[in-house]
Design goal:
Shape: elongated
Number of domains: 1
Number of helices: 3
Helix content: over 70%
Strand content: under 5%
Amino acid sequence: MDAPPADNKTAMNTLRAILFFLRRSILILLIVYWMGFIGFTLEKLALGGPHAVKAFYAHISGEVFSWKWRPFVAQQLTILATTVAVGFLEWWTSKRKPGKPGDGPFPKPS
């Protein structure tokens, strides 16, 4: 006895759920990154001033003697733009519900 073939709706629901978890996981990781970045910056600023902040980020980048602030700021702006883009995508897809109202990544079984 053969099993009935899976329909396209099942495959789309699975793909939608996978993409939902992927987007949400990336967004959570980026938010945790920014919380750590801001926390370490404020800690170093409070304990040692601007020179301690510069020394800390030069140390973690591995370029202690030739650290430049422009590539560092460009990298942080790229990560910020990615965070905003993923956050907007998450917000937009949560507002735009395909199908009937109430259909999310896990539609109710019919």
